[in-house]
User: Fold these one by one.
Assistant:
Number 1:
Amino acid sequence: MDTPTKWKLPEIQLPTFEGNPREWLNFWTQFQKIHEEASIDEQDKYQYLIQSTVPGSTPREIVESFPATAENYKKAVEYLKERFGKESILVQVYIRDLLQLVISKNEFELSTLYDKLQTRIRSLDSLRLTKDKYVDILFPLIESTLPIDIVKMWDRQRHLVQDAR
């Protein structure tokens, strides 16, 4: 019987957050492991939370505005979640990013534009915003920024796919 190989994995670095709403999801998905770990004392969690905020940033000021006690740890986390982690605010941020990308006058290669759009759409998906809620607005906006020959090819391809069904 083979025994599994034991690998020594590198330590995961403690995430830091400086207040950019676009970074909240990345920060919280990592920090949530500490937050939900029952074996870590709340006082220690508070210290991890302090270390996970950038000195001089709004999140650090918020965390340090509470006395560093176990009782205040949950209050500080809830305040951060209320300020930076509200889904409605995050959806607005990512929708704004999408719109800015679409209406910007930057000349992207089509593949670069596609990659940037996909990144922002994945962020919306992670917030459980379904495509049917924004696709009717987003697609015409994207199409309006593309060169006419690309739009014609897009339409031809879309009709071919629909006809095949």
Note: The two ends are 51 Å apart (CA to CA).
Number 2:
Amino acid sequence: MSELSVSVIQVSYGDDEPMADRIERVAALVRAEKGQDLVVLPELWPVGGFDVKHWDERAQVLPAPGPVEATGAADRAVVEAMSAAARDAGVTLHAGSTVERSAQPGPEGKNLWNSAMLFAPSGDLVATYRKVYRFGFDSGEARTIEAGNELVTAPIGPFTAHLATCFDLRFPEYFREGLDAGADLLVIPAAWPMPRREHWRALLRARAIENQMPVVACNTAGTHAGDHEMGGASTIIDANGSVLAEAGSGQEVLRAVIDAEHTARQRKDFPVLAARR
């Protein structure tokens, strides 16, 4: 099979929803997508996309790739709930990202990371990705968490996916690295705000067109950390840059089918990538 049926769950939430309630609600949304191949969630949905002051207390411990043991620990709540939801739905689940607490600090002396999680239909954790490009310049994420330093690709059905997160989108050279590593699909969760929503739309299409690869992008909805309105507009784009589905500003589930054979034909019929120097 060359086709991949995709669901993108654009989660909406506010500051008044307890983290435990949100985890339970989102797990139910994932289970409702049973029958799909890939389900994608937004960036930082468990802990609050801009709710930096609460990240340390809400941080999670992520296990090594493999089967996920049920412990019931509060700092494992996200990974255990998402593992169970992926298994119950029988889907590959990109669970967006959460704030990870590591046992050892990184180069800047911090032990918090913005980490994405990919689960197999068995519920096994098969890949994690620590966000490379941190947003905030001299505040927020850039000050609070460590920067990842590894490009991560993972097989998803007939595709090889490049895993990236939100602000990474602004750095086109990073996606050329993914292309050179064999990627033919970009999966990118985000907590992208409303004031820069048109940047989000333009950059997603640009990444699809310039790399001739489908893009599955899951943004957040709602208002976080008091006054940060999220932009929504989650999108599924094919390798020709055509928008297959796009969400509005509220909570919504997008569904579309992307085709690896279509991607291969685009690269063969318009061989722009072969002209790189």
Note: The first helix runs from residue 19 to 31.
Number 3:
Amino acid sequence: MTDLDIDFVRAQFPAFDEPSLQELAFFENAGGSYPCRFVTERLARFYRERKVQPYGPFDASRVGGEEMDQARIRLAAMLGVETDELSFGPSTSQNTYVLAQAFRRWLPEGAAIVVTDQDHEANSGAWRRLAEDGFEVREWKMDPATGHLDPAKLEPLLDGARLLAFPHCSNVVGEVNDVAAIVRLAHAAGAVACVDGVSYAPHGFPDVGALGADIYLFSAYKTYGPHQGLMVVRRALGEALPNQGHWFNGDALYKRFTPAGPDHAQIAACAGMADYIDRLHASLGGSHGTPRERAARVHDAMRRRETALLEPLLDFLSDRNDVRLLGPGEAEARAPTVAIHCDRPGAALAAELARHDIGAGGGDFYAVRPLKALGIDPGHGVLRVSFTHYTTSEEVARLIAALDHVL
């Protein structure tokens, strides 16, 4: 098999067996996905059997620490990085903030950094605030009509810059940026590349090693896991940046950017995300390969399924002259995070869809800067419908019918 079996996929998610959710077609996945059963089972087991200080000599403590280590070991291998290059924190926003404090001390006085106006505020705001400390903040601007980030416009901004922070995919524009090519431009200019992968990783774990990013961040609660932020910091950079953790943990790369004690249970539960990827790989007929190869095969299967699901929705929207689709109209060029603007507020449209048992979102989604750059009043907002590989074609059809009625 080369395609995902949707019945098998949905059987891995307790939410689809929950009676109170049976009528809901869930299209707010960009705000957070359903957790898979491997995660919920590991989390419940940890709280039941291992909820003690980990890494001690007695069994409950020792096993708890081993389960935390297993999450880091397995996920790092799937991401194509070394085990200690992966850190866990309470959220991507907080991980980015901690990194910004490290860069504030590490960058030369007055150094230039480049951000974009396509970003969710989590990966942009912390870097922009460095202007308060005398750093030069340059903005790589989107095309105001399409939302596209043109690499040709980036090159002059990188002249003399020390850091580039940009998204793998915007949470409202949806276009998948060519991360590997953009990272090469940054490195050629002598800049560090920090990639916000929050809106991309739910659609297949990226091969961070192949992308070449110095930093890659995403959120476990959007990749079928618990509420944790995952942060890859490659060794050369991580060892050069000043330690943000306890001074006595400074020699441990994965502890250098974790100022507070980690959430033991949720880190251990993150191993369930690796369980899920491996189970999907087995369902595709695979039984061999490295963790990195298995994750890549599942990534491609997820993307194929989501692209096929996305095409009828984009066709429906392209046939209407009363809505504006943000981002590309081609399914292959984007993630299935679809924001539309029309004369009615996004929140009002989401409320109407809810009466049709469609779970969607309306508002600015912390993408205030991108919406303004696209000429949209953030107070008016957009309607955002977002899905993943576990969405069914029947649910997409229900969404289209409800949209047709509401619009």
Note: Residues 203 and 303 are 6 Å apart (CA to CA).
